[in-house]
Records
---
Amino acid sequence: MLIPLFKYLETLDVPGAQMFNYIMFRSAMAVITALLFSTIIGKKVIHTLQRQQIGEDIRDLGLEGQMQKKGTPTMGGIIILASILLPTVLFAKLDNIYILLMIITTVWLGMIGFTDDYIKVFLKDKKGLAGKFKILGQISLGVIVASTLYLSDEVSIREKMYDAKGTAKTEMGLNYETGKSETRQMTKEIKSTKTTLPFIKNHEFDYKWLLWFLGKGADTWVWLLYAIISIFIITAVSNGANLTDGLDGLATGASAISGATLGVFAYIGGNIIYSGYLNIMYIPNSGELTVFMSAFIGACIGFLWYNSYPAQVFMGDTGSLALGGILAVFAIIIRKEILIPLLCGIFLIENLSVVIQVVWFKYTKRKYGEGRRVFLMAPLHHHYQKMGFPEPKIVTRFWIVGIILAVVTIATLKMR
C-alpha cells in the first residue's frame, strides 16, 4: 500500500524514498511494525477478552499447574493474524501472486480456527467445529494453492540451459555487486512441478517423475498428484501446530524459528545472484515473500510477549491452525516442502506421538482386552510434564531442538 506513495515521492527526489525499492528494507520495516503492533494491541485485546469473559475451559488431565490456567483469555490468535496482515499490506507488493496466496492462506485458516474457537467459547460446545469441516477447509485451501501455482502464468522457475551435447550454455552478464561483466550460465523461465530435494546433486525433483508409468500422460495428471501432496502437507503441518499449542509459548516460538528459516530460503531463492552462487532453484519474484515472513516472525515474537510462561493469553485454534498452514503454504510456494519434516520436526513428532499412542492403545485393547500406552500422555510435551519436568524447561528444550533442526535444514543447501 505504501509502495506507490514512495515511488511518487521518489519522482520528487525526496531523500530516502528509494529505500522502498529494497526488499531487505521493507522486510525490516515489516518485522518492526508487526512486533510493535502485536505488543501494543495485545494488551488491549487481552483486556477485551477478559471483559467478555472469553477464557479457556481447562479439562483436568492431572498435569502440574494446569488448573491455574483456567479462565486465561483465548482466541488471542487474532493478535497474530492482524499483526501479520497489517505490515504485509503496508510494505509488500500486493500485485505479487505469492503475497496474495499468503494473505488468502492467513485469512482462510484464521477463519476456520476462529469458527472453532467461537463454537467452543460462545456456544459452549467443547467439541468445537466438527473435524470434517476443518479438513474440508484445509483441502479447499490446498486445491486453491496447487491450482494457482500450477496454472498461473505468473508462477515459474528459472532453469539452466544446455546444448545438445549436454554442455552448459553461457553468456556475458553484469554482476550487480561488483559492477563488472562476467561469464554466467544461460537460463530460461519455465512452468514446472519441480521442487527441492536435499542431499542430491542439483537439489531438484519433479513430481511428474512419480508418474513415469503414464508416459506422456504424466504431464496431464501431475496436477492431481501435486494437489494431493499440497493438501496433505497443509493439513499435516496445520494440525501439527495445533497439537503443539499445549504449553505456554511452545507453538509460537517453534513457528518463529521455522518461519525465520523459510524466510532465508525465500530471500536466497528469489535472488538470481545468491541462488546462482549456491546452485539452488531460482524462483522469480519469490523474494517478495521475505517481507511477509518478516511480518510473520515479528507477530510471533510480539505475541510471545504475552504468551510466554505464565501465559496471559492463548492463541486458540484461531492462531495455531493459521501458523501451521502459513508455514506449509510458504514452503510449497518456495519449493522447499520436502524439507518440512526436518524443519518442522517439532510439529512432526507431536503429530506422530498422538498417532502412535492411539494406534498402540487400540491394538493392545483388541489383543489383550486392555489398552496400553507408549507415552505417559500424548502429545509428546505432555509426556514430559507427566515425568515431572517444569513447563518452561520443556518449552525451552523444544525450542533448542527446533533451532538445531533449522540449522541442519539450512545446511542442506550445501550438502549433496
---
Amino acid sequence: MPCHTINEAPMFSTAVILAGGASRRMGFDKQTLSFDGRPLIERTVELFRELFDDIVIVTDRPQLYRDKKVRVVSDVFPGCGPMAGIHAGLLQAKSLFVYVIGCDMPYPEPNYINLMKRKLESAAANSVAGCMMRRDTGCLEPLNALYNVALTDAMARSLENGERSLQSFCRNRPFIWVKEDEARAISSELRMFYNINDFVDVIDVRGGAVPSKSLRSEYVQPISMARVTEAAGAVNGEDYVVREGCLSLIVNGVPMTELHALPDRWHDLAIGWLYTQGLIEGASEVSSFHVELIEGRADAFDAHVELNGPILLVQKEPFYFPLPRKDKLDREWHSPLSPLDVVGDIMSLLDEKTSLFRETGGTHSMILFDLESREMTDVCEDTSRHACLDKLIGRALLERRDLSREGLAMSCRVTTTIMRKIICANIPIVMSRSATTASAVQLACEAGITLICFARGRRYNLMT
C-alpha cells in the first residue's frame, strides 16, 4: 500500500525516476549516462528537488545511489518493463499523484509538469487516473506523466496477467489529456519527451538542439548485432536500421534503371527521376504508372511507366535566375525577420518534421517550403539524397506546383549532381546543414541560386 492514505496525502509530493531499463540498444546501462561531465540522473534529481519534496529512484542497481539522498526501491515484478517500475514507485508514494519520468530523458520541463498539476488541481482528484499528453496521432506519452496512486492495484493485476503495455493500460482510463498544441506552446520541439535510445541519440543530446521523437516508423526494423567497445568487449543487443527498397523502372517496356530508396513514394520517385534525367518535361507526359512486387525479393518492385509518346531525351534550354544582389535574401523572404531568424526557423522546421535519422542514423532529410509564407510544402527522408530530391520534385510536378516559388532545406552535402537537379527543378534558394563543393557553388552562381551551407542555429555560410 502507498505510504499515506488518500485522505492524509498531499496532492503532489513524490517524483519517480525509472532507472531499471534493459538498455539493449545502448549496449550498456543507461542509468550510468553522463551529460556535461555529470551523471544524467544526478542532473534530473537536482532539478526535481525544486519541484518535489520526495524523490524515488526505481532501479535494479541500488548500490549506484547510496550517497544521492534519495529513496531507492526495486520492482516487485522484475523484468516486466516500465509499468513494473511505475507500480513500484506508486507503492512508495507520499502523495496522491506521482510524477514519473525515465532516467534517459535529458530535458525534463518544469513548465510542462506545472501545466499537468494545474489541470489536476482543477479536477475532482479522486475521479481521475492522472494526467499525460496524448499526441495528435493518438499515441500517449506515459513516461512524462502524473499517476494517481489509486492505480496501484490495477497495475499489479495487469502485471500478474502478463499485460505490460502502458499504452493499453492508460488509454481507456480516466486520465486528463494534455493536447499536443498545449505541450508545443511550452516546447515547440517537445523536447521533454525525448529519450536516449542509442548512440545517435547521445550525439544529438551532446550537440544541443534535439528534434522531437516520432513514433517508430514502419520503414525501420530491428536487427540483432554485437556492439564492440574497448571497455566492454562484444555485447549482444539490438539496433534499428532503415529499410531500403529497389525500384526497377521500365519505360514503354524498356528497362531503364534500378533506383534504391526507402520503399515508399515510388510514383513521385519515378516522375522526379524521369524529369531530372530529361526524359519528360512534365507529369502529364506519363499516361500510366503501376508498381508490381517482385516475388521472392523483399522490398523490390517493378515500376511500369507508359509515356504518351516514344522515349526521347528532352534537350532543355539552359535557364538562369537574375543575378543575386546583397538584399536578395530580404526580398525573397517577404518577411520582417532577419535572414538569420528565417534560416534558423527553416532549419528547425527540417529537424521537427523528420525523424528517421534519429532512429537509425541512415537517412538524408529534405523539405520544400513556400518562400512567402515559409510554410512547409513537402518533406522527405531517404537512404539516397538523390532519391529524396527526386521524390520531392516528382510530387511537385504531380501537384503542378511552381518550384520557382519554393525553397529547399536539406541535411546533406550539396554536390554537383544535386545542384543540377535543383537547377532543373527551378528552385531559387537552397540551404543545407552540411557542406558543398566548388563545382556546385559555380553552378549555383551561374544560375543565380542563393546557396546557404552549414546552417546551424543562428549562423550559416552564404556561398552565393
---
Amino acid sequence: MGIGVSLLLIAVGAILAFAVNTTVNGLDLVTVGWILMIVGGVGALLSLIFWSTWGGFAGTRRETTYVERDRTVV
C-alpha cells in the first residue's frame, strides 16, 4: 500500500466518521470510518518506514574509500 492509497483511506474514513449522518441497518458508518483511518495511518507509517530503508532520502549513504598500495617488486 502506497502513500496515495493510505491518504485516500484516511480521507474516506474521516468523511464517514465525521461528515456522514446517515444510518444503515447492520452497519455503523462511524466505526467503519475509524477503521479506515487506522488502516490508512498504519499503511502510511509502514510505507514511510520501508521507503526510508530502501535508500530514498534517508541520508544514511555510506561512502567507501579504496587505498591502493605501491606494489613494486624489488
---
Amino acid sequence: MPRASWNGAVIAESTAFESVEGNVYFPPAAVRRENLRDSSTTTVCPWKGTAHYYDVVVGDQVNRDAAWYYPEPKPAAANIKDHVAFWRGVKVDG
C-alpha cells in the first residue's frame, strides 16, 4: 500500500491511488488534512492543467509546496482530480 511520510508522520496512505509520470496521486480521503496547509503557489502542466500546492506541516516543521493537486484538471487528467501527490523530501513507499 502506498504511504507518504515526512518527519516521522504518515501524511497519506491508500490501496486506491493513481500513478502518473512516476508520481503517486492519493485520493482526497486518504490524505491527513491536518498535515496540509494551503499555499498560493501554482504551476501549469500542458496536459494536466493548473496545479495548486500545499505546504506539508508536521509539528512546527514546514515543508513548503511539498504537495500538489489539480482541482480542475484538463480532460486527459480527469482521473487525478483533487488527488494529492508529494515531493521535496516527502517519502512515498509502496
